[in-house]
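[Protein data]
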Amino acid sequence: MNQDRRDRLRDAAIAVLAEAGGRGLTHRAVDAAAAVPTGTAKNYFPTRDALLRGAAERCAERYRAPAAALAGAAPGPADAAQLAALLAGLLRDAAGPGRPRVLACLELRAEAARRPWLAALLDPVAASDFTAYAQLLGAAGLPAGPERARTLTLALHGALPHLLTSAPATLAAAGLDDLDRFARDLLASVCAEANR
């Protein structure tokens, strides 16, 4: 099996999920998005569940890339300002270049509500965020207990659908119209008890 073509098809499945949603994910749509002959996706992914699995695995592979690129080779943000900048950068990526990937991940999560095997595949990716944000809080010298990591993680995850819809009134009401300020305010709220 040609791994480059398989990856191209998985990337096309992500693009289809982002553009057309879960209902639009068909073998024909993936073939068209990948610009390959009709039937190619079916050869690599014989069922719709196989297509979903391929897209989920690809999303998992690509999930950490924006964070790694923003963090660089450094051990982590050295202070709250650097962490706020990192968080704002992650949100910018989710609303900008990473938008198709994030939309596809959200579509996969909706599909996972009805497919336990898909939920099990996505679970380690989502669960790892809680640990990752606890580590980032600690690296920045901020209180990093499980409660704070949960609050930070859930607030960031909750912001994503609003960023993706780009509704101006909602963005303003949520404070997402200024991502730098949002990240600073979020960290201040998460760590407020430590500052008292």
Summary: The longest helix spans residues 116-139. The mean pLDDT is 91. The two ends are 59 Å apart (CA to CA). DSSP finds eleven helices and no strands in the chain.
